[in-house]
Specification:
By secondary structure, the chain is of the alpha+beta class. It has two domains: 54 residues, RNA-binding S4 domain (Structural Genomics Hypothetical 15.5 Kd Protein In mrcA-pckA Intergenic Region, Chain A), CATH 3.10.290.10; 200 residues, Pseudouridine synthase (2-Layer Sandwich). The chain has seven helices and 19 strands. Strand 13 and strand 14 form a beta hairpin. The chain is elongated.
Length: 263
């Protein structure tokens, strides 16, 4: 059993707040009865829900990990001008990417139709980390790495990394070339092209950017363009990790992820 407004939001009818307004306005029926008070609990698998006399279809929740290749955008493109990563996963589910990657970046995408869980995993206020490997031009010295963490002003925003460190050879992704350096960068924000802007401003433009972790989700040995479903245990762990920081215990996810591309 779940709250009616939550089910409407998950079905894509409206936001949670807008769904509450629709209920209060008497626009929602459950098993033929108007529901105009908040707090009603319904079973989407058994109860018939109508909004403005139109049936509400609640999709089965789906959770996928995808290695997005370079040259693909993360979400739908109605103009068909660009290839979209969502087309790499077969089926007719209405998936979306929780935490986008720009077209020239690659790596881990979490695809789902569970809007609430996706929001908890990606919204900055929940402070869930995203980890990247960045191949940059040049050899950043210690002072430059400190500036990555202190941050810089950029177009009215403050761009910074939570942590940054030089890292060695990566069997999965190749070695750094001459006058290139692999950096491991951790963020909890998701500002557009944040790492690229920050790196370029500090004199070390990004040549290649790969996301290897979102919260507890690891890229592991997933190959470019391939996907897999999350297991039941992974979904349970994800829900646990997606709680606000004050309601969950510290885990060893960060420590486990430090070796993600070395496995």
């Amino acid at each position: 059993m779940e709250r009616l407004q939550k089910i409407l939001a998950q079905a894509g009818i409206a936001s949670r707040r807008r769904a509450e307004e629709m209920i209060l306005a008497g626009r929602v029926r459950v098993n033929g009865q108007v529901v105009n008070k908040l707090g009603a609990q319904v079973d989407p698998a058994r109860d018939k829900i109508l909004v403005d006399n139109q049936p509400v279809v609640v999709e089965t929740k789906a959770y996928f990990l995808l290695y997005k290749p370079r040259g693909y955008i993360s979400d739908r493109d109605d103009t068909a001008e660009y290839k979209t990563a969502l087309d790499l996963v077969p089926g007719n589910l209405r998936l979306f990417a929780a935490g986008r990657l720009d077209m020239n970046s690659e790596g881990l995408l979490f695809l789902t139709n569970d809007g609430e869980l996706a929001n908890r995993l990606t919204h900055p206020r929940y402070e869930h980390e995203k980890e990247y490997l960045a191949l940059v031009f040049g050899a950043p010295d210690d002072k430059t790495l400190e500036r990555f963490v202190r941050g810089i002003p950029y177009e009215g925003e403050w761009l910074r990394a939570d942590t940054v460190a030089r890292t060695g050879r990566h069997q999965q992704f190749g070695e750094a070339g001459r006058d290139e350096t692999w950096l491991r960068i951790v963020l909890h924000e998701g500002k557009k092209r944040q790492i690229r802007h920050l790196s370029a401003a500090l004199g070390h433009p990004v040549k290649r950017l790969i996301r290897v972790r979102i919260g507890p989700l690891l890229l592991g040995k997933l190959q470019v363009g391939k996907w897999r479903k999350l297991t039941g245990d992974e979904v349970a762990q994800l829900r646990k990790q997606a709680q606000p920081r004050g309601t969950r215990k510290t885990s060893n996810v960060k420590r486990q992820a430090s070796n993600v591309e070395r496995k």
